């Protein structure tokens, strides 16, 4: 019975080591899949809406989120099985990546809001200026009519 226990312990240790490697690999993949800082800093576009749409696309975490989810699953499994001797570093790295993802999500939402607000604002401004032009034109027509009536009365 002693030999079976030793084999089981060895197998458990090996599985725990593989689980830790899976968590570390998933965390590395998540970091690698994050958007580059330059991708959100340097955006080429012809107008504000183009810049916002480019930024919104650059802020898409894509596969990085899936890798972080995998890391969390394996970490949780290892923690519950008490498989890790020391997993504080993994917990800290998961927390740090969670914070980055929260920042990305917040920025993505804000950019999306702006991308829908800016065209509406442009339309409202164009309408306001068009109305002002119409008012000036109507005033000009009214003044011309009044001048014409004065000229007829003077004759």
UniProtKB/TrEMBL annotation:
Residues 1-25, 133-155 have a biased composition (Acidic residues). Pfam families: DUF5790. InterPro entries: DUF5790. It comes from Halorientalis pallida. Residues 1-27, 122-155 are annotated as: Disordered. Residues 123-132 have a biased composition (Basic and acidic residues). This is Uncharacterized protein.
């Amino acid at each position: 019975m002693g030999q079976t226990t030793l084999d089981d312990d060895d197998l458990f240790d090996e599985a725990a080591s593989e689980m830790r490697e899976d968590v570390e690999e998933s965390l590395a993949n998540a970091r690698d899949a994050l958007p580059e800082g330059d991708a959100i800093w340097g955006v080429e576009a012809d107008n504000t809406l183009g810049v916002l749409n480019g930024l919104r696309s650059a802020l898409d975490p894509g596969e990085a989120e899936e890798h972080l989810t995998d890391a969390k699953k394996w970490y949780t499994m290892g923690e519950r099985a008490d498989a890790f001797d020391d997993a504080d570093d993994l917990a800290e790295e998961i927390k740090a990546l969670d914070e980055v993802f929260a920042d990305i999500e917040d920025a993505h939402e804000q950019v999306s809001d702006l991308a829908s607000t800016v065209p509406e604002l442009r339309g409202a401004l164009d309408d306001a200026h068009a109305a002002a032009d119409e008012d000036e034109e109507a005033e000009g027509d009214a003044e011309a009519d009044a001048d014409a009536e004065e000229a007829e009365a003077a004759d």
